[in-house]
């Protein structure tokens, strides 16, 4: 059966009952004119354009990619693929891929050979190390590389260079998930499993637009809603998302007030004594303080702050309070908003006091945005020590030094790892002299872009950018290294529920582009990094050897990979860590039998003050939590730092749409996806638009104290007083290439965002700013270029042409027994 | 030697010598408080020793601390150090406040002044959190600032 998967992003229903097996449905899309019989080989991989980790096979014809299909046996997706998976692969073959290294000469980037480019990089590194020491070198990486690449980068940065300036763009996407898990459970590691979606009777989505960010898992929810004994949904989101449309209770709080809402939910849970006292007694500390903190947080109190009716809050509390198996998921609506960690931790608290953990359907999913964000975290490419080791625990550092065969003092652990926003500050001030940016595009994705562009353009800052395309960031670089991507290299990625997939190389990279792993290894070889016995610090050359090295580093840690091999991963439908020789099938849920990694000797972090970010002293942690239980950490609501006023009367939130990923470097180059959402837009509600004399398609200006952008207006059912702008759009496909035309209007949402971050997770706040909205020109018959299938659907149904992909977006869906795999 | 480290060594050297003098002065001013008198005298020796060791350490790197140069003022510090000095000042101010809260809390207990005890118990923990915040930031920022100046 064929469907237009741009018009129908979630495809057809395969209904199933609670506790049943989710039926398989194999989705496939082949290039125009390619018949299935013509495919010469199918190469196993998993999604690269979201964190779902949907398994797929890449079709290869004559050495080129010719399509993809899902794998029916895979535990994550049972064969399904979302629109970005079905069509995104085509970006690999874009004619404007980088195929040769570039270096800046006389102000211009010119092509050169690898040797020249790499010698330039190593010479600058050596010079900085000699003159100013390891603190002058910083690395900013991605959530889109492979595990093997992050691990290699972590070893070379930490033990080779000896810098603690290493972070990923996961800082923008999943840092709060990691921090919230550390605060509650002492250690990172996703407690729940996607399979909990099969068993939950209530699914609560906190700031998580699952329908657009994890389309395949949302398909699973839709299939349950269409089947027997369907779950009830709670949706907390200020936008009218598909999740909101299917929710039993939808709360659309004023942005920046999540902690107040969560405190009220906890208040109601405790007031009605919907508390699992045995669980609390056995597995937690801090219940008394939490009870005291939320004692005054009534629904009426929160209603004023959140601008949500108290009765709705009570209904939401009843939903989560009466569930027999509650699954909660959390994403950017919490992580990128004011009081991010404090709010995400309150979701953990809700589960801990209700005893909703570690059994089918009862779990927490603190989500990721990017495909391998989990690997960035566990390998330490986000600055944390690899394997969730604790930088403040000398025994953990010594253990890591043993794995790497270096002295513990080689590994900088005198201060917390430098988070991305601080790294850019150091670069702005000049104390970081070299920034190596791999697989990410800060000139579009960081807040306050005018500042970021100026900072990256500084003469004194040497910038290396490793990417597929000449991104906005690459245009400002001193050296640009052409990288191979998914399908052109081999490595593993771990999704948001700890499922590991192997992505095999299907085709050759274009021109001289190289796998990121090869680039890092080349650098390490040229720098001649040594261990303490004079042997090479990094002894591996191939992805599989890097994976084996990582296994040794992960041994005995929460993210233990020692039971996996490339061969086993090739044969399996995804394996969840921890996976050991004794437990070769992996682990579906953490904390099935108590809290495992919170003991003072084992924990990854002693925690932070959620309001100030101040570190908790190890001695204090030990006295608070001597037996290593989960910590119920209370938090008081604090008003956002920037609130609307007369000049900037709206609140502004940025976010994503189903059809694009990150800064559109891939999805913007794919016809089906690009045409579904070709340009930036802004959303406002009908009442606000009417008050300002604005309507659908009007060209408007969104301004904040930092900057402005112009976009067409889509009138939706978003909460009154709130504007929404998708953050994907930059400048690579505009005349200017790297920023707004001189004095002209901006296109990127981040022209307007504020430089402010959560004190605990250091995640920038993209969802809590004040803004003004003004008319530039009336629509004149035009519509906003926003999809109608998603949260950006028009308030008046049918008032704008429906989003469709036509013939080019047809994909097959085979839900026959066994599918086609 | 990095400018930032030299500047901090000089500031600490002055600080240790000043603390030694202050401890001796307090010891003499309160000669009748026997514990204060004796222990302060002992602690002054620590600070004198610290000052000596600092001078010795710096001399090996060609920096003279035992000269008559006045104590560097925060405003004269290299630019990057100003933030650290401001955080230091905040930490010290919070520490003073913390000690005052402690005095009041003790007094409240002694006089069974419930209102005052309640006030101190409510506010003092936040003063401690202010101190921890400044301490955390100093720990986080000083390696970069001092090593890069």
Give the gist of this structure.
Chain A has 821 residues and is of the alpha/beta class.
How many E-type strands of chain A? 29
List the secondary-structure elements of chain B in sequence, H or E. Answer: HHHH
Characterize the biggest β-sheet of chain A: 7 strands, mixed
The averaged pLDDT of chain A comes out at 97
Number of strands of chain B: 0
- The percent range for strand residues of chain A is 15-25%
Q: Would you tell me the structural class of the helices and strands of chain B?
A: mainly alpha
How far do the termini of chain A sit from each other?
Answer: 16 Å
Round the Cα radius of gyration of chain B to an integer and report it.
19 Å
Which range does the strand content of chain B fall in? Answer: under 5%
Number of helices of chain B: 4
Portion of residues in helices of chain A?
A: 25-40%
Q: Structural class of the secondary elements of chain A?
A: alpha/beta
Mean pLDDT metric of chain B = 91
- Count of helix runs of chain A: 26
What would the principal axes of the Cα set say about the shape of chain A?
globular
Q: CA-to-CA gap between the ends of chain B?
A: 10 Å
User: Which chains have the largest interface?
Assistant: A-B, 20 and 15 residues
Tell me the helix content of chain B. Answer: over 70%
Radius of gyration over C-alpha positions of chain A, nearest whole angstrom: 25 Å
Low-confidence stretches of chain A: none
């Amino acid at each position: 059966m064929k469907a237009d998967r741009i018009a129908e992003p979630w495809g057809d229903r395969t209904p199933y009952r609670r506790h049943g097996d989710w039926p398989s449905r194999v989705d496939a899309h082949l290039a125009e004119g390619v018949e299935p019989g013509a495919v010469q080989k199918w190469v196993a991989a998993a999604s690269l354009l979201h964190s779902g980790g949907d398994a797929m096979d890449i079709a290869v014809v004559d050495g080129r990619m010719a399509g993809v299909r899902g794998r029916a046996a895979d535990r994550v997706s049972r064969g399904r693929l979302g629109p970005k998976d079905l069509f995104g692969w085509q970006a690999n073959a874009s004619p404007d891929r980088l195929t040769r290294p570039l270096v800046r000469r006389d102000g211009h980037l010119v092509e050169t050979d690898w040797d020249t480019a790499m010698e330039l990089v190593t010479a600058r590194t050596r010079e900085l190390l000699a003159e100013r020491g390891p603190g002058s070198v910083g690395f900013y990486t991605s959530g889109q590389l492979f595990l093997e690449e992050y691990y290699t980068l972590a070893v070379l940065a930490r033990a080779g260079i000896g810098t603690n300036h290493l972070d990923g763009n996961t800082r923008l996407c999943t840092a709060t998930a990691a921090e919230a898990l550390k605060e509650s459970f002492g250690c990172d590691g996703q407690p729940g499993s996607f399979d909990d979606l099969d068993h939950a009777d209530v699914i609560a989505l906190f700031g998580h637009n699952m329908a657009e960010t994890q389309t395949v898992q949302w398909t699973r929810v839709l299939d349950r809603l269409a089947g027997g004994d369907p779950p009830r949904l709670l949706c907390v989101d200020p936008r009218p998302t598909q999740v909101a449309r299917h929710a039993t209770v939808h709360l659309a709080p004023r942005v920046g007030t999540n902690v107040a809402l969560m405190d009220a939910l906890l208040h109601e849970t405790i007031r009605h004594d919907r508390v699992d006292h045995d669980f609390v007694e056995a597995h937690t500390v801090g219940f008394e303080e939490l009870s005291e903190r939320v004692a005054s947080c009534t629904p009426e109190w929160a209603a004023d702050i959140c601008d949500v009716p108290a009765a709705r809050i009570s209904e939401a509390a009843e939903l989560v309070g009466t569930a027999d198996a509650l699954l909660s998921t959390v994403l950017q609506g919490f992580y990128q908003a004011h009081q991010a960690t404090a709010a995400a931790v309150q979701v953990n608290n809700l589960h801990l006091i209700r005893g909703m953990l570690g059994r089918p359907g009862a779990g927490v999913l603190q989500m990721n945005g990017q495909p391998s964000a989990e690997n960035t975290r566990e390998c330490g490419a986000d600055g944390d020590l690899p394997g969730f080791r604790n930088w403040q625990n000398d025994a953990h550092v010594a253990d890591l030094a043993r794995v790497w065969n270096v002295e513990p003092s080689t590994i900088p652990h005198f201060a917390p790892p430098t988070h991305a926003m601080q790294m850019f500050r150091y670069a702005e001030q000049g104390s970081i002299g070299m920034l190596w940016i791999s697989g990410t595009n800060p000139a579009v994705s960081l807040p306050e872009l005018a500042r970021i562009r100026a900072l990256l353009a500084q003469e004194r800052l040497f910038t290396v950018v490793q990417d597929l395309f000449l991104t906005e960031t690459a245009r400002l670089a001193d050296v640009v290294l052409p990288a191979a991507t998914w399908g052109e290299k081999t490595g593993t990625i771990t999704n948001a529920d700890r499922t590991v997939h192997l992505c095999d190389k299907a085709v050759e990279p274009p021109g001289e582009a190289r796998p990121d792993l090869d680039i890092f290894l080349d650098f390490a070889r040229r720098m001649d990094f040594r261990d303490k016995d004079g042997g090479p610090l990094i002894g591996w050359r191939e992805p599989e050897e890097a994976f084996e090295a990582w296994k040794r580093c992960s041994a005995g840690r929460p993210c233990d990979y020692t039971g996996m091999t490339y061969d086993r991963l090739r044969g399996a439908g995804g394996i969840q860590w921890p996976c050991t020789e004794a437990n070769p099938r992996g682990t579906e849920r953490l904390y099935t039998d108590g809290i495992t990694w919170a003991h003072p000797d084992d924990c990854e972090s002693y925690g932070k003050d959620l309001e100030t970010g101040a570190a908790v002293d190890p001695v204090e942690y030990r006295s608070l939590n001597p037996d290593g239980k989960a910590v119920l950490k209370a938090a008081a609501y604090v008003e956002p730092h920037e609130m609307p006023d007369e000049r900037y009367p709206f609140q502004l939130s940025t976010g994503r749409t189903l059809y694009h990923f990150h800064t559109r470097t891939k999805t913007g180059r794919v016809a089906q996806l690009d045409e579904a959402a070709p340009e930036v837009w802004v959303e406002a509600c009908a009442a606000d638009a009417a008050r300002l004399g604005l309507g659908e398609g009007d060209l408007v200006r969104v301004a904040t104290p930092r900057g402005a952008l112009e976009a067409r207006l889509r009138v939706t059912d978003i909460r009154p007083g709130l504007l929404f702008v998708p953050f994907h759009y930059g400048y690579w496909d505009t005349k200017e290439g790297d920023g707004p035309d001189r004095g002209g209007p901006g296109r990127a949402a981040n022209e307007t965002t504020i430089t402010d971050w959560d004190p605990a997770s250091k995640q920038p706040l993209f969802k809590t700013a004040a803004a003004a909205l003004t008319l530039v020109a009336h629509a004149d018959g035009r519509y906003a270029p926003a999809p109608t299938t998603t949260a950006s659907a028009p308030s008046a149904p049918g008032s704008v042409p429906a989003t469709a992909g036509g013939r080019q977006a047809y994909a097959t869906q085979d839900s026959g027994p066994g599918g086609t795999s | 030697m990095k400018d930032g480290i030299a500047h901090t060594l000089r500031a600490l050297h002055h600080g240790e010598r000043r603390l030694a003098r202050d401890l001796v002065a307090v010891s003499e001013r309160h000669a009748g408080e026997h514990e204060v008198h004796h222990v302060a005298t002992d602690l002054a020796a620590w600070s004198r020793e610290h000052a000596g060791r600092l001078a010795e350490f710096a001399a090996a790197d060609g920096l003279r601390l035992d000269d008559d140069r006045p104590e560097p003022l925060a405003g004269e510090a290299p630019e990057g150090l100003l933030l650290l000095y401001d955080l230091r000042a905040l930490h010290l101010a919070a520490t003073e406040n913390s000690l005052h809260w402690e005095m009041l809390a003790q007094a409240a207990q002694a006089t069974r002044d419930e209102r005052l005890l309640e006030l101190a118990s409510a506010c003092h923990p936040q003063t401690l959190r202010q101190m921890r915040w400044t301490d955390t930031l100093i720990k986080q920022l000083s390696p970069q600032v001092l090593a890069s100046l």
